[in-house]
Design brief:
The complex is a heterotrimer of chains A (249), B (250) and C (414). Chain B is mainly α. Chain B has helices at residues 2-13, 20-48, 55-85, 96-131, 143-170, 180-205, 218-225, 230-249, and one strand at residues 178-179. The longest helix of chain C has 28 residues, at 230-257. Chain C has helices at 2-24, 40-45, 185-207, 212-220, 230-257, 370-373; strands spanning 47-54, 58-60, 64-73, 87-92, 98-105, 108-109, 121-130, 134-144, 148-160, 169-171, 177-179, 282-292, 297-306, 312-319, 322-325, 341-342, 346-348, 359-367, 386-395, 400-408, 410-412. Chain C is built from six helices and 21 strands. Classes of the chains: A mainly alpha (249), B mainly alpha (250), C alpha+beta (414). At the A-C interface, helix 1, helix 4, helix 5, helix 7 and helix 8 of A face helix 1, strand 4, strand 5, helix 3 and helix 4 of C. Strand 3 of chain A pairs antiparallel with strand 1 of chain B, so a sheet runs across the interface.
Chain lengths: 249, 250, 414
């Protein structure tokens, strides 16, 4: 192999090749991250994400941002620091939401006939865009973790409220009051999900009157900050290009 | 002038850098095969998959399981064996253009791996959550497990293994040892399959209900993280490709 | 050639779409549910379902049927299953083929989990509204936290019609009548579609320029800062501010549109009303019990004492939903599922009326293929090989008494 030999015939071809790799890399990154992220998310926050009668104002709000800020932080740690590409969080969420929507539509509805208005996913996009924007504008891990992480937690509930509010309208049903979301959970029989499995608010203290969701969101934002830091370093670790001696294997 | 004509001719005769046909066909294999699998689930899940003690369950589901086991072992053996057997023993002396072409082939494998991971870890894994809302889990081999654990996971393991072996046997960039992140991104998701042992142990003796966030499932989560190893692979690839294109891109 | 290829590709996609659609609208004949996998001792010693009635065998979409009956929470509840302090009255059907329009225990609606007491009998009713056509096995079912689903007897019910006709109208407390089957769907698609599009725009903004190789070369060369331009920053700021503005505005407009919302309702229901069964005046002592594997028969030697004031006869042995009857004493008229009913399955060595104050020792044999079919015979391989069940005694006037039995079982392999 001669050093003077070139892999491409012209600059135009080099640009084309580089661009083709862009798409191949983006596609692969998108779907592999989707796979890993989706299995992580469905098994750490999935039940809250599957069913509207789990989307409460205490645990869903708290858990979903905390467990979902993980992969965005890790992918940002690679894409920003190595390529100055500020779409690490958005690409993760686009992947996750695509995976979820395809599955909810084709399987939850298409295979087992749960109505889509009962099993749609949570919206994580506002937080992801803000996370990417803050990283890009600040260029700082600390600012992104603290401001971005907090914003990620805080934006989650209001970002979902337009979709779930209509399901929190109360209804009187055979002498009991419940929300439409509760009624969906009751009507559409889930053989494997008895009501007691549901982890939702059963609190007693009402320090903030009826507005408890912001407290959950704030707490969630706080933990998201910590998780962001942690996963940033995971991302750095996963982004390494180290080779190990094959004799050790 | 004559020289230019010759080089144009040579270009025309030469294999393309990226074989688009292989890329499209590779992707179609996954899309069409899994489309068929989903059709099979839709029909035989309902007609033969609700009661594992029924004779039709044996016909349509257990036989599916036995056949897929055999095919998977054969496919892995033949594919991995072929890639290894046909390895390039003079990999360090290939031309830059050939190296670039192989990177494209490698990315064709990685795109297939992306499809396989998507179907395995996302599509069929979350699908399991809804199927177990329609049946009472009465066997380790429910229709969704037969597809998820024993079909879609082995397929991404086979694809990932093939991709890894291709890089290891044909690309100069992977000759300095074993890429740690490549191993993580292939072996990590592979470990999800043995982790089924933990899952089934728990479900056999205790949990019959469907709580996805149960700690019993955290093994899957941990190994799912390994998919992030793809970041390392992307970086190695970009470095290697940059080396090949740097002076022409400048 | 290329045209041909395109055609083949197009046709395969059409075929794929067609098969997917066909699969989605396929009307199936389902098999039974997975009750047989449950340890026999668990089915025999936890919840005893009896007097079950499925109001219909065939229901058109949108019509309702009921599953009614009683269950006895077994006094000798096995140690390995958590006590039913948190339980949920479910129904064993393959997902939402029916919707559960109502469920009651002792007249109390039970959309939530309930606390049950050992040794008590409860009356229940489940109201089902048909949604998806097909033949479905409808089981009584109780989920017990720490125990899992305890599945009772199931019966085939056919739903006819078309799922597209199904509606689920509900009137809310704000006075609006909605169809819960499709309610909020377009709103959900709209918001998710909008946010997904904004995310895609952000990605597209960066993907329209070269991404990986040239940017990596620039970063390696120490020129990372040149990769983000002033315009990029302005665009990013626009996205950031825009996102927050959309969130704030959409939240405000939602609150205007839905001023009344309540949190999800949860919490355990206690104090379920029990029913008083007639006081048992008959006493039964199991002397021994064996299960003969080759004959698929269980044999019990029992001493029966009648402390009541009218003569009684043994009419039925009921365990895990399988009913063994002595046709001379008890005949089923409820249309109980055939596979769970052994109409002549109970043989008593001397089933003459037992007079008040008398006592006798008899051999009782319960034999039927159901022992095998329902895998109750596997009891002998369980880690706690005790059996249990209900005995029903009748007097000449047809008055019924329920007695529970609970004893070790010895298998006989020859």
């Amino acid at each position: 192999m001669s050093a003077s030999q070139s892999a491409v015939r012209s600059r135009a071809e080099a640009v084309k090749v580089s661009r083709t790799f862009d798409w191949l890399i983006l596609f692969t990154l998108f779907f592999v991250v989707l796979g890993g992220y989706h299995i992580h998310y469905m098994l750490t926050g999935g039940d809250w994400d599957f069913w509207t009668d789990w989307k409460d104002r205490r645990l869903w709000v708290t858990v979903a941002p905390i467990v979902s800020i993980t992969f965005p932080a890790a992918v940002q740690a690679c894409l920003w620091y190595r390529y100055r590409l500020p779409f690490g969080a958005v690409v993760c969420i686009l992947g996750l939401l695509l995976g979820e929507w395809v599955n909810r539509y084709l399987n939850f509805w298409g295979w087992t006939y749960f109505p889509v208005n009962f099993c749609f996913p949570s919206n994580l996009m506002p937080g992801a865009i803000v996370l990417d924007v803050i990283l890009m504008l600040s260029g700082s891990l600390t600012v992104t973790a603290v401001v971005g992480g907090l914003a990620y937690g805080l934006l989650f509930y209001p970002g979902n409220w337009p979709v779930i509010a209509p399901l929190h309208v109360p209804v009187e049903y055979n002498g009991m009051m419940m929300t439409l979301a509760d009624l969906q959970g009751y009507h559409y029989v889930r053989t494997g999900t008895p009501e007691y499995i549901r982890m939702v608010e059963k609190g007693t203290l009402r320090t903030f009157g009826k507005d408890v969701a912001p407290v959950s969101a704030f707490f969630s934002g706080f933990v998201s900050i910590i998780i962001y830091f942690l996963w940033h370093f995971f991302g750095k670790w996963f982004a390494q290009t180290t080779f190990v001696n094959s004799e050790n294997f | 002038m004559a020289a230019t004509t010759e080089s144009v001719k040579a270009d025309a005769a030469e294999k393309p850098l990226l074989n688009v046909r292989n890329l499209v066909l590779g992707s179609l294999v996954y899309i069409i095969f899994y489309g068929w699998v989903r059709w099979y689930e839709g029909v035989y899940g309902w007609s033969a998959g609700l009661d594992s003690f029924a004779p039709e369950f044996e016909t349509y589901w257990m036989n599916f399981l036995y056949i897929e086991f055999v095919l998977e072992v054969c496919t892995a053996g033949i594919l991995w064996g072929y890639i290894w057997k046909s390895r390039d023993r003079k990999v360090m002396s290939i031309t830059p253009r050939e190296e670039l072409r192989r990177h494209f082939t490698h990315w064709t494998w990685l795109v297939c791996y992306a499809w396989a991971i998507y179907y395995g870890a996302s599509y069929f894994t979350e699908q399991d959550g809804t199927w177990h809302q329609t049946i009472v889990r009465d066997t380790d081999f429910t229709p969704s497990h037969i597809i998820e654990f024993y079909l879609s996971y082995p397929i991404y393991i086979i694809t990932g293994g093939a991709s890894f072996l291709y890089a290891r046997t044909r690309l100069p960039a992977y000759q300095q040892g074993l890429s740690l992140m490549y191993l993580v991104s292939v072996v990590g998701p592979f470990m999800i399959l043995p982790n089924v042992g933990l899952n089934e142990w728990g479900h056999t003796f205790w949990f019959m209900e469907e709580l996805f966030v149960a700690p019993l499932h955290y093994g899957f989560v941990f190994f799912g993280w390994a998919a992030l190893g793809v970041l390392g692979v992307v970086n190695i690839e970009v470095q290697a490709i940059s080396k090949l294109l740097k002076k022409d891109l400048a | 050639m290329k045209i041909l290829k395109d055609k083949v590709a197009k046709l395969s996609f059409v075929a794929l779409l067609l098969t997917m659609t066909a699969a989605m609208f396929y009307t199936p004949t389902a098999s039974a549910h997975g009750e047989k996998s449950q340890a026999a001792f668990m089915r025999m010693r936890t919840i005893h379902w009896f007097d079950l009635n499925w109001s219909k065998d065939e229901v058109p979409v949108n019509d309702t049927m009921t599953l009614t009956g009683k269950f006895y929470v077994f006094q000798g509840w096995p140690e390995t299953v958590d006590k039913p302090e948190v339980s949920f009255l479910n129904v064993g059907i393959p997902g939402p083929v029916f919707i559960r329009a109502g469920s009651w225990i002792g007249g109390q609606l039970v959309p939530r989990s309930v606390s049950l007491e050992l040794g008590e009998t409860y009356e229940f009713k489940v109201l089902l509204k048909a949604r998806r056509p097909g033949d479905w096995h409808v089981h009584a079912m109780m989920n017990v936290k720490g125990g899992g689903p305890i599945i009772g007897p199931g019966k085939w019910v056919t739903i006819t019609g078309s799922m597209s006709d199904f509606t689920n109208p509900i009137t809310t407390l704000t006075g609006e009548t909605i169809d819960l089957e499709t309610y909020n769907l377009s709103n959900t698609y709209f918001w998710h579609g909008l946010w997904y599009a904004i995310g895609l725009l952000w990605l597209a903004y960066w993907a329209r320029k070269p991404m990986f190789v040239p940017r990596s070369i620039a970063v390696e060369a120490g020129k990372a800062d040149t990769l983000i331009s002033g315009t990029d920053k302005k665009v990013a700021l626009g996205f950031g501010v825009g996102v927050i503005a959309i969130v704030a505005m959409s939240m405000a407009s939602t609150n205007d549109k839905f001023p009344i919302t309540t949190p999800l309702q949860a919490g355990l229901l206690r104090g379920m009303k029990t029913i008083e069964m007639p006081v048992a005046t008959v006493k039964v002592k199991i002397e021994d019990a064996t299960y003969r594997v080759p004959g698929r028969a269980m044999q019990m030697t029992m001493t029966i004492t009648n402390n009541g004031d009218s003569p009684v006869r043994l009419g039925e042995f009921n365990t895990a939903g399988v009913r063994f009857l002595d046709p001379e004493v008890s005949v089923d008229e409820s249309g109980y599922p055939d596979d769970l009913l052994a109409e002549e399955g109970l043989t008593v060595s001397d089933n003459s009326p037992l007079a008040p104050g008398q006592s006798k020792t008899v051999q009782v044999t319960a034999s039927d293929a159901a022992w095998e079919v329902y895998r109750l015979a596997d009891l002998i391989y369980d880690p706690d090989s005790r059996f249990a069940g209900l005995l029903f005694f009748y007097d000449a006037a047809g008055n019924r008494q329920m007695i529970t039995i609970d004893a070790p079982l010895i298998p006989s392999f020859i």
